[in-house]
Design brief:
The complex is a heterodimer of chains A (357) and B (252). Helices cover 31% and strands 22% of the residues of chain A. Chain A has a six-stranded mixed beta sheet with strand order 5-4-1-3-2-13. In chain A, helix 5 crosses helix 6 and helix 5 packs across helix 10. In chain B, helix 3 runs antiparallel to helix 6 and helix 4 crosses helix 6. Chain B has one domain: Ferritin (Up-down Bundle). Helices cover 71% and strands 0% of the residues of chain B. The N terminus of chain B is likely disordered. Chain B has eight helices and no strands. The chains are: A alpha/beta (357), B mainly alpha (252). At the A-B interface, helix 1, helix 2 and strand 2 of A face helix 7 and helix 8 of B.
Chain lengths: 357, 252
């Protein structure tokens, strides 16, 4: 195989998505696999490439890569399966190295699993890994600003709640938005990390409070970022303030505006759109990227694509807590240079912008 | 049915028979049948080898597989059951026919692909799972034989990788042709339940629904077998996206 510019490591977020992937692999002449067979067979599939991916830049360059699925079953994302899932991510990374990818983006759960320790990945000289979290943060922050603008709100009067605030994405969002809002509420499970992050903002004069229970703050915030998938969204955000803007930045995205927060303005954050051209072979368009708009991809994966188009094969996002507003601005600029921008905003009910789908 | 091993004592002579003995009886029957088929395949393979060392190697393999069959039969005796075998059972017969077609064509590489990549992957994965849950020496025997089968695969992979390096496209086309033939049969054997009638190996009704009683399941054995097959194909250097499509296209 020739050297690849990039590899994208991901996993499917639902059994429906998995069924669609397998249907493409089986081809139109064969009947789709029954759901019970899919659930029996899928967990046994070792990590491997699903398709080739070609991306064109509006600047005229082109990058060729591969999408590698770690085949983490969507119902085995919980803490009890961390070891098994880490082994899958390592297997997927080994695939990327074997394919001689120059840069690898770690999508979804993959980056969460190893954002704190790249040493868990197989050793390699020629392949670099990025969690992709910087571009994810960029698109979450852009999305918040855009939603405020769409609603005619002044973000400077807002109280911002970040759930999952001490993670790489949560803390990056906090650093970008804290200087822009009136008050910051940070929520996470680890009290010590919360205190350290809060101290960072207090030193800069930001009004900040911390809690381990998001319900403590939920009625006070009018802008909420859920930087981690919530196991029980209804429990955690059931008391959200009417009209609050809520960014579902987790993976899988599981905040439903109608079920849990009837009065909230929920949107799916962290997504970007490729405008120069995106091709899959075999054609997994709309299956690997299941969004109501074309060529929309998660920011974490797009970071590797943008860096490949730029010819910057470096671990841009590495470790936890290193994402700064300056790094976010740099990554936004790189992506935009190649025609990769914030995706149109939408949620489970459809577009938030009233545009064509 | 052909009996592979003469029993030196009847089940009645055993002091006690476990409630799960009849399940192990069928598990062992499938294993013995597979080993006997492998012994027959290697014996046939020796007939198309030109190199005396290859002939000796194939005959040694055949002897080893007969030894495995005998070891499984001995495990049956230990738990007080008579273990039958049937290499003429419909699925096994089809697998043998596929192998014999390669023999007729004097296709040494095709023979290795069928026996070492397809059938041994199935055996290795199944034996490993049984080895983890089988009682006492029965489990140990399955685990030991699984380790030996793994060595066989490693040896064959080295030969086949060299062969593939000569002409990857031709090799992959041959492999795919054999996959459609042999793996379709194996997929039917591995289906969660035998929808197309009795397998002709189980001593009464199909053992699959009862496997949960010994901490196994047909779905688990199928999953592990397909996983091992994919991993073995990976070792040959065939692109993962290609082999995944092959496997997902198998009948269920």
């Amino acid at each position: 195989m020739n050297d690849l510019d990039f590899a994208l490591i991901g996993h499917q977020d639902s059994w429906t998505a998995i069924a669609d992937v397998l249907a493409v692999l089986r081809g139109p002449a064969r009947t789709p696999l029954p759901d019970d067979e899919i659930k029996d067979i899928f967990p046994w599939i070792p990590p491997r490439a699903l398709c080739c991916v070609d991306v064109n830049s509006i600047a005229g360059t082109r990058a060729s890569g591969v999408y590698i699925d770690s085949f983490i079953p969507p119902d085995r994302l919980e803490a009890a399966c961390v070891r098994e899932n880490l082994a899958r991510v390592r297997g997927a990374a080994a695939n990327a190295i074997q394919a001689r990818a120059k840069i690898v983006s770690l999508g979804g759960f993959s980056s969460i699993l190893i954002e704190g320790d790249f040493d868990q990945l197989p050793a390699t000289q020629d392949t670099v890994f990025t969690t992709g979290n910087t571009l994810t943060v960029a698109y979450i922050v852009q999305g918040i600003k855009k939603m405020c603008a769409l609603d005619g709100r002044n973000i400077r009067n807002s109280t911002l709640l970040i759930v999952g605030a001490t993670g790489d994405v949560g803390s990056g969002c906090a650093r970008c938005l804290a200087p822009l809002v009136r008050r910051v509420l940070l929520c996470a499970r680890n009290v010590e990390r919360l205190r350290r992050l809060a101290a960072e903002f207090q030193a800069e004069g930001v009004q900040v409070e911390v809690a381990t229970d998001p319900q403590r703050f939920s009625t006070e915030a009018d802008v909420v970022i859920c930087a981690a998938s919530l196991p029980s969204p209804a429990l955690l955000l059931g008391r959200i303030a009417p009209g609050a803007i809520v960014c579902d930045a987790g993976y899988p995205k599981n905040l439903s505006p109608t079920a849990e927060m009837p009065d909230a303005r929920v949107f799916f954050g962290g997504l970007g759109q490729i405008t120069g051209g995106l091709r899959f072979a075999p054609d997994f368009r709309g299956i690997l990227n299941r969004h109501p708009f074309p060529d929309v991809v998660h920011g974490c994966l797009l970071e590797g694509v943008a860096l490949a188009l730029e010819g910057r094969f470096e671990p841009f996002s590495k470790g936890r807590g290193a994402i700064t507003p300056e790094r976010v601005a740099e990554m936004e600029t790189i992506a935009a240079r190649h025609g990769i921008y914030l995706a149109p905003l939408y949620n489970a009910d459809g577009s938030m912008e009233g545009g064509a789908q | 049915m052909e009996r592979v091993v003469c029993l030196d004592r009847s089940p009645a002579e055993c002091t006690s028979v476990s409630p799960t003995a009849s399940i192990w009886q069928d598990v062992l029957a499938h294993a013995i049948t597979g080993e006997l088929l492998a012994a027959m395949n290697y014996a046939s393979l020796s007939e198309i080898c030109d190199d005396p060392a290859e002939i000796a190697d194939a005959l040694e393999h055949a002897q080893n597989e007969r030894g495995h069959a005998a070891a499984f039969a001995a495990e049956g005796r230990k738990i007080g059951v008579e273990v039958a075998n049937n290499v003429e059972a419909k699925h096994w017969k089809r697998l043998r026919s596929s192998f014999l077609r390669c023999i007729e064509e004097r296709d040494f590489v095709g023979c290795l692909i069928i026996q070492e990549i397809m059938l041994e992957s199935f055996a290795l994965a199944s034996y490993s799972r049984v080895g983890r849950v089988g009682p006492d020496t029965l489990g140990q025997t399955f685990a030991r034989i699984a380790a030996e089968e793994e060595e066989h695969i490693g040896h064959a992979v080295a030969i086949l990788r060299t062969e593939r390096a000569r002409d990857a496209q031709r090799f992959d086309e041959k492999l795919y042709r054999l996959h459609l033939d042999v793996m379709s049969t194996l997929a039917q054997m591995l289906a969660k339940d035998c929808r197309d009638g009795h397998c002709e190996v189980c001593h009464s009704s199909c053992v699959k629904p009862a496997l949960f009683e010994v901490s196994l399941s047909a779905a688990q054995l199928r999953g592990a077998s397909l996983q091992q097959y994919l991993k073995t194909l990976d070792m040959l250097g065939i692109p993962g996206q290609v082999t995944l499509a092959w496997v997902t296209q198998l009948p269920v």
